[in-house]
Fold this sequence. Notes:
Two copies of one chain form a homodimer. The first copy, chain A, is an alpha+beta fold. Chain A has one domain (about 5-240): Electron Transport, Fmn-binding Protein, Chain A (Pnp Oxidase, Chain A, Roll), CATH 2.30.110. Helices cover about 20% and strands about 35% of the residues of chain A. Chain A is built from six helices and ten strands; from the N terminus they run H-E-H-E-E-E-H-E-E-H-H-E-E-E-E-H. Chain A has helices spanning about 5, 25-35, 75-80, 125-140, 155-160, 230-240; strands at about 25, 40-45, 50-60, 65-70, 85-100, 110-125, 160-165, 170-175, 195-200, 205. In chain A, strands 2-3-4-7-6-5 form a six-stranded antiparallel beta barrel. The longest helix of chain A is centred in the middle third of the chain and has 15 residues, at about 125-140. Chain A is globular and about 70 Å long. The interface between A and B is large, with 96 and 96 residues.
Amino acid sequence: MSTSAETFPLTRRNRVVRRPMRGHYDKATVYDILDRALVCHLAYVIDGQPYCTPTAFWRDGDTLYWHGSAASRMIRNQGQGNEGAGLPVCLTVTHMDAIVLARCGFNHSINYRSVMAFGTARRIDDDAEKVRLMDRFLDRFFPGRAGLVRQPTRKEVKATSFIAMPIEQASAKIRDVGVHDDEEDYAVPAWTALLPVRTVLGRIEECPRQMPGVRKPRGMKGYVAGRRLDEIFLEASRAYAPAAGEEGPA
Amino acid sequence: MSTSAETFPLTRRNRVVRRPMRGHYDKATVYDILDRALVCHLAYVIDGQPYCTPTAFWRDGDTLYWHGSAASRMIRNQGQGNEGAGLPVCLTVTHMDAIVLARCGFNHSINYRSVMAFGTARRIDDDAEKVRLMDRFLDRFFPGRAGLVRQPTRKEVKATSFIAMPIEQASAKIRDVGVHDDEEDYAVPAWTALLPVRTVLGRIEECPRQMPGVRKPRGMKGYVAGRRLDEIFLEASRAYAPAAGEEGPA
Lengths: 250, 250
């Protein structure tokens, strides 16, 4: 396999300038951070004004997808010009892992894993493709979800837009070390610690109008209260697109 | 008190277009969402390219602050033109509260609280003001932190930049309802539930090189494993800038 298939190209746009040792450009690292998230933040520009919008997204190969109402300002502008023009977008995912207290302000820090992915967003207008993407989006929650729900109506398909953005460049940035002070500061009597942060699933609240006899689907066995959300989503991603040698969805 | 002191002005830039019932412009709601977060995402534009960068931030009144290395691309560009020019920025905070599974794809949703704040970022170049902001930033973790650590050196002050952005407009967007299906879909035998999501503090890992006898500061009594991070940070914000009738930091 060539290097270009395993890493994203390095350009001025995605090079990690500050703390370059925290930068990663290999696809495995970038994919891992993306696939563990359900929500990203999108930066885009309308009439010179930057907007930063949180939204659900998913990855298939080197393309990122998100959706929205066909009427939304974001979708209308991101989709400018069918099959072509589009808008430049930076899609960012951040997992916050810890707060790091140190013996001086300068060494206080946050542990995190983040990805910035750059590309040009293109709106999908084909209804059949939109139906396929709706199913794919549902299967992002857990493989098989799309087959368990009522199929989309024509009106719902019309009202929903999807955006596809092939990743042109991407970079990951990771800080995962503990308290690290300047040697002479270890004599400073400031209490220091790493404060881990976890985003976890809470206690599941079933719909009060659940049909009798309807049980939690087998595909959701990973959704357990207290479990880390990034692990649940990574598992769902891998079940959908299994790594070589792993088992795919039943 | 006039309306303008209690709500942000409504313009094309910050008006919630989609699902307007989810939009809020009162400062109490916007402040609450901002003050519960340590990390935001910033959208800004360099040479026509949007960037979306996660960073720690805090709020004082109607001004948002963040910091970075004086050498960083983001800070250099955001601070263009001392005391004036600056760059338009959209600062967004998102708290994800739940995943909502429904009986059709269209009604799948995410519960969240988010704020988009718009303004022009200006770099702070005055050293004395930078020292003050360093202390303020530390006290964001918990009031009193700045007084417990080694004071910044001249070199650290030079290497750190702060950015201030008065909020020109802001909007909050909140979804906080459970499963909500079309009436005829309640007969669809799809398992549906609200899956709560919580970002919580994990088990604190003290620095292995802690000085003997140094104890967790009193100001950190809210930092308890398992507690929601947004509550810890809201408490820290309120202790720093107490609401009328509440007690401030000792």
